[in-house]
Amino acid sequence: MQRMERLLKKANSLPLQSGVYLMKDSSKKVIYVGKAKKLKNRVTSYFRKNTSHNAKTVMMVSKVEDFDYILTDSEFEALVLECSLIKQYQPKYNILLKDDKGYSYIRVTREEFPRISEVKQKAEDGAKYIGPYTSSWAISSSVREAQTIFKLPDCNKSFPRDFGKARPCLNYHIGKCMGVCTGKISREEYAETIDQALAFLQGESKQVLQLMEEKMLACSENMEFEKAARLRDRIAAIKRLGDKQKVVAGTYRREDVFALVRGTKKMCFGALCFADSRLQESENFIIEDSGETEEAMRELLLRFYAMREDIPPRIVLESEIADSALLEAYFSSKAGKTVKLVVPQKGEQLKLVELCRQNAAQHLALYEGKSMKQTAALDELTRLLGLPAPPVYIESYDISHTGGQDNVAGMIVFKNGKPYKKAYKRFAIKGFSGQDDYASMAEVLERRFRHYYEDEEGSGFKQLPDLILLDGGKGQISAVEPVLKAMHIEVPLFGMVKDSKHKTRAIATSGGEIQINSVRTAFSLVTEIQDEVHRFAIAYHHQKHRKSSISTTLTGIEGIGEARAKRLLRQFGSLRKIREADVAEIAAIKGFSPALAEKVKEALQES
To answer: pTM for the full model?
Structure first.
């Protein structure tokens, strides 16, 4: 019995009950773990013929030699068990996040004038260590903020040994350091400052502000004006930082924000973690593109919180995902408090999702060697149009003519979000005369894909596009869809609709329109494509129209037909150069006698 038949037969014997299945390869190693509400339906779907799986699933199924399963009393129990087994087996074809960034600590030296710094690991050096913290980025940023606010020294001097031994550095003169080296800061005041800085680092900003304000007033009453001024400056710095962070943090005290951006072959899972309305952590994970954005986000959330004990009450997502109610129940159970999955539609929370997506897009762009703008635009377009993957190779078409005369079409290509001019093509409409944009578009697409089937390898037509964008609306789509269907071309087809001011307004489908004005990067990309294809088609039309006008002028001369007119243009290139030519030069062209050459000269000089 063939492998797939054997596996399908075994799968058909499974009950219609919730549980977990474990796919195994020839060495009996677990390569994938999944959960199902109905095991039989889910597992048989892998082994049936003519099932449309993404590339990752196809590869996984090709390696499966056997599978085990575990029944559960509920889908919730299946989810809990799935998470546990994935953590145990680390299967190759499950989405896994590597928690290899290590931990960070705040280090406080034990000396008369202690120093604060961020370190990756503890050492047996007598210093005090606070932590560990999961995000080195958050800790290093916070330490820098504390050093700036409290004007702590970052030089290599040792105190009190180096008091007064040299002039204070530039940081002191520009107000970035309190100037411990001058000897004017007492040990008690410095210790108090360090305590305030550590309280700030551990998220006690409000308490620190209150104590500092009380201390500032006390110093003023005691005529300690320099000390009061230092406290005033620190208070102002903390408040400025808080105002700046409010712009980023939004309105909720504790939440995590997630986004998923798809690239050419990889995906980037981005996370922004907020605590006390401050951005505490920013992470981005590059993973293989699974082809299923919604399912991928579900798995990624489970993997992300499998690495962490602390789950916030709000988990903010960019779109709805499968099993959201089940995930809420699981995370609430794990956190010991109510956890909600939220998909914002407007306001500050939506801006945070966009910020997370931009960070993930930038991270993925750097990895793939592209710009953030291109990566984000293609990802947004993919979501907007419901495409299976970001369109690497986009073809766009436009028709141009003057009152039905000199009908032409332009085909442009955008590759990885940028114009790919070596693949641009031009078409002169041949099937009919007069004005019919729909018939023109149908003819052009039919000719383009005839080239795809008939041309030799190496032709510019041999690559199938990932997306076709027509300049126009539903009418153009309706004219082209039958052509693609008859030629068995399965490429997503959409139109680009303009408003009354000839500005891009929407994406047309066979059933209506998709508004894109609010989707900034996708809108910019589609506008650029529409403007470029229009420019290219218009340029070709003007060129053809000029040649047509010149040809008409020449064929109006007695004795000059189409063939002789073409020879003249091929030889001289323009009417001006024909006018400037000698009779002998014209008569030297095949088919031209001296008498006919004289006739041409006389006719052009009069025109």
So the answer is: 0.64
